[in-house]
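Please, structure for the following, as tokens.
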Amino acid sequence: MWGLSWFKKMWAGRAETPGERSPVELSSSVPGEALSVAGPVHVNDGAVAMGDQALAVGAGGVAVRGNNTGIIQTLIVQGTRPGASPDDLRRAYLAVLLRQLDHFALSSDTGAAQMRLSSVYTALLTERSEFDPLKPGDERAGRLGRTNNRLSAVEMMDCEQRLVLLGGPGSGKSTFVNIVGLAMAAELLGTADLGLAWLTAPVPRDDTERPGQEKEPPPPQRWTHGALLPVRVVLRDLAAQLPTPGTPIDADTVWQHIVGNLRTHKLDAFAQPLLETLHGTGGLILFDGLDEVPDAETRRDQMKQAVESFAATFTRCRLLVTSRTYAYQEQQWRLRGFADVSLLDFTPPQIRRFVEGWFAHMVELMKLSEATAKAGAERLQREVDRNPHIGELAERPLLLTLMARIQTEQGGS
């Protein structure tokens, strides 16, 4: 419905008319029931703050503390009703992202138990040093003003408008895509517990690496671009909808896939506002799995065309693409105009942060006592520290997750 050719004509003649943001009216998703909210609710220029310690946010925002499942569902219902306003549509789109991106199944036989990704996520480091030039003559990395630490994945995104994030299987590439999309959506909604402050929290580090120096609070990760409207494209899903291998595709092919995803969530009407935002002020496009598509070799040219043409069309957007390292080392897979960087394995401080976060979440999710959770965390951490083989496996985020899951479900040593 909202093709790029239509939009280019519309955008060229578009008059800039400031719109008024209407206040948010939250009602229960259950007909005839009022929405129960603990604490004050403040509405101002479309902003909502909920909870005992209410938080004022910008126009069109929704600030929610604690368990926000009911509020998310309410926002989705309001945005998918007939005649929903552009603000309602936008909030519903962001709420869908929050619901999609912040969980993964705890195990194959506990379908009702859902881990919140935000509860266990640990910031990722890359191979790039702060003093390594990103391009010939580029001194941005050295201006971060710290010691010769590695740049995080967030900081690499800050440096590069178009970035390919590389890593082996289980290195955390797709998780990072989900986390970035989640944090951007949360920031734009005004969710109190997530957002940019959470995304850019300091990377866990080992203070013993600099003996004799005074301990200084670690700085947050650098991100200077504010909250960008996120759009996630899982490339294996896009590939499943493409024409015969060898058939050229362009940005409109990708856009129609995005519109199809909106339609799945009854958000067709958000296609035009989304398109206007991406062309007008920009956004953050997250392409996950460049080489992880069926028949990758035969689809390679189409995958490259999809990403490169979208980048050339939506020039105000920042783009993040993920790919397995070994595939992207081949010249045939490389994207024109994109920088690339590889993820590093977890360090000991990152492993500790993950283990602590996992078992803290188990207190809530699986109703473990704090004493049981603490004992489980200490047991797993002890095995990682004393057994070199276990320690080496734990450096890979996926394998560490499997260890923690087994420890939790079976109480194994």
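The longest strand covers residues 318-324. The mean pLDDT is 80.
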